[in-house]
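Let's practice the habit of predicting before peeking. Look at the sequence and jot down your guess about where helices and strands might fall. Then scroll down.
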Amino acid sequence: MAANLDKLVEELSALTVLEAAELVKKLEEKWGVSAAAPVAVAAVAGAPAAASAAAEPVEEKTEFDVVIKDAGPKKIETIKVIRQLTSLGLGEAKSVAETPGSKVLTGVSKEVAMDAKKKLEEAGAVVEVV
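Done guessing? Here is the structure:
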């Protein structure tokens, strides 16, 4: 069994970011779950601890995701900006631009996220930083 798991890990490691995102969507559909569910469960499970820690200051978010909502009227310009911001090829960048809710950047600093948002909006895209 361990050999099969090692082989599976190797195969999953070879996936591109877009392929991995597509895999997540397919698994969510197949199993009827959401990848965000463990976070919600952890938050609910930790509720009593959170109540006792309410006096502690809330940590400021340090990592942000840049999510494209719509490529806008100048899709080619948006694709060019996505390629500049990432290491994606033309086809992958086009797929990101055409898929609402796609993450262009993940886990970046606020400055990087805001800069990317500005560049994408200048290209005509509708973007959200989460």
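How did you do? The beta strands are 64-70, 102-108, 126-129.
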